């Protein structure tokens, strides 16, 4: 049984797979297996991996009979692993030099079920350069140790949670294999990280995040049109994809695979994070006209209180920005449209509502009140200036 199993899901990755695998094989660690789970590539990926496996016995190719998506490829690779610990590396990313030595030392010091370390974000295009700093912050965990149910309680919390990417983490082998074995045999695009991470954190009993540990090289924008303008169809696809992940998580919570008393709250945390992601894509990627069209589609899948809560978040942020600048909104300001959209969604809200909805609506109303007070103050100041001007002319 090797110390480390490094699983690389691959699909048409011939451009970067050799670089990725070399970064792992050059770590200077022999007690290692590298499993490439090929998702029925149509390029030279399997050929390149077979050739490498002939030269290095640490490399093993697992081939799917048909294309099934990243969740299935990762599952095949993890279930084929035998290591004490499992790492996942994407085909266009890499491990930093000396990463496994650093990881081994951290495992020895802390003995966690999940070891979470940081990233070095490498921007691959101009759009990615602008986002690299924010991505680095998002993917760099605050140092801490969590135990038992606190792990999942913290991960999807709106307060100091941690990211759900399955790379730049190391998992105890039996927990990784149990978690991926419990996943549904479905195609799940992009949201598969969140789904698998939810299961992993449900099963783990110890989690440790270490500081100053940029041991994973994340190539932001490589192999994708990062920064491209979104369409309404793109946002609705994101909405459907994230909703599918939420459904799978709800199924797991009800399955009895892990027993805990707080499943409704933990599922609610995930719902809040997912609808936040959907609405951020809508707000940041679409024109005003596109946002209005997309909101209707999002409302067809997600509860009205979830959608209204995020729209009130945008109202809150815009109202605060105007108040902070001591600027009253003009008739053309987006605040008016955001508020109209929020109220339109709010009209559909009925029954019990989420705490996040109530918090965001209250905050939006408070900041709108601040703007009204600012407007009144300016009106009073205007009247005073007018009176003073008249006095001075007499």
TrEMBL record:
Sorted alphabetically, the keyword list is:
Glycosyltransferase, Transferase
Question: What GO molecular functions are on record for this protein?
Answer: glycosyltransferase activity
Q: State its Enzyme Commission number(s).
A: 2.4.-.-
The UniProt record lists the keyword Glycosyltransferase: yes
Q: Which SUPFAM superfamilies match?
A: Nucleotide-diphospho-sugar transferases (SSF53448)
- Domain (Glycosyltransferase 2-like): give its ranges: 5-122
Tell me which domain of life the UniProt entry assigns to the organism this sequence originates from. Answer: Bacteria
- Gene3D superfamilies for this protein: Spore Coat Polysaccharide Biosynthesis Protein SpsA, Chain A (3.90.550.10)
Name of the top EC class for this enzyme: transferase
| Pfam families membership | Glycos_transf_2 (PF00535)
Among InterPro entries, the record links this protein to:
Glyco_trans_2-like, Glycosyltransf_2, Nucleotide-diphossugar_trans
Record PANTHER family: GLYCOSYLTRANSFERASE, GLYCOSYLTRANSFERASE 2-LIKE DOMAIN-CONTAINING PROTEIN
This protein's name: Glycosyltransferase family A protein
What organism is the protein native to? Thermophilibacter provencensis
């Amino acid at each position: 049984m090797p110390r480390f199993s490094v699983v690389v899901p691959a699909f048409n990755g011939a451009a970067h797979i050799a670089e990725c695998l070399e970064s792992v094989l050059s770590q200077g660690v022999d007690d290692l297996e590298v499993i490439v789970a090929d998702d029925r590539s149509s390029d030279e990926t399997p050929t390149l991996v077979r050739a490498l496996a002939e030269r290095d016995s640490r490399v093993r190719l697992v081939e799917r009979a048909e294309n099934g998506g990243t969740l299935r490829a990762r599952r095949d690779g993890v279930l084929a692993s035998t290591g004490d610990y499992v790492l996942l590396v994407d085909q266009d990313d890499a491990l930093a030099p000396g990463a496994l030595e650093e990881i081994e030392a951290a495992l020895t010091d802390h003995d966690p079920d999940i070891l979470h370390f940081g990233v070095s974000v490498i921007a691959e295009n101009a759009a990615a350069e602008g986002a690299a700093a924010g991505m680095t912050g998002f993917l760099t965990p605050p140092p801490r140790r969590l135990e038992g149910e606190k792990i999942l309680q913290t991960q999807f919390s709106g307060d100091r949670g941690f990211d759900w990417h399955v790379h730049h983490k190391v998992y105890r082998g039996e927990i990784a294999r149990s978690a991926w074995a419990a996943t549904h045999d479905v195609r799940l695009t992009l949201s598969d990280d969140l789904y698998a991470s939810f299961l992993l954190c449900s099963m783990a009993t110890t989690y440790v995040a270490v500081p100053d540990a940029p041991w994973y090289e994340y190539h932001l924008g490589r192999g994708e049109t990062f920064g491209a303008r979104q369409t309404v169809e793109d946002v609705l696809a994101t909405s459907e994809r994230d909703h599918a992940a939420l459904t799978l998580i709800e199924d797991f919570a009800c399955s009895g695979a892990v027993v805990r008393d707080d499943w409704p709250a933990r599922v609610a945390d995930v719902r809040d994070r997912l609808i936040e992601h959907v609405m951020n894509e809508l707000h940041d990627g679409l024109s005003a006209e596109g946002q209005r069209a997309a909101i209707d589609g999002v409302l067809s899948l997600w509860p009205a209180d979830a959608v209204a809560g995020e729209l009130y978040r945008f109202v809150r942020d815009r109202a605060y920005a105007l108040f902070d600048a001591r600027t009253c909104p003009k008739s053309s300001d987006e605040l008016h449209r955001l508020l109209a959209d929020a109220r339109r969604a709010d009209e559909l809200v009925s029954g019990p509502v989420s705490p996040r909805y109530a918090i965001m609506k209250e905050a939006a109303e408070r900041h709108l009140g601040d703007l009204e007070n600012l407007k009144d103050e300016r009106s009073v100041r205007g009247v005073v200036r007018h009176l003073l001007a008249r006095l001075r002319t007499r």
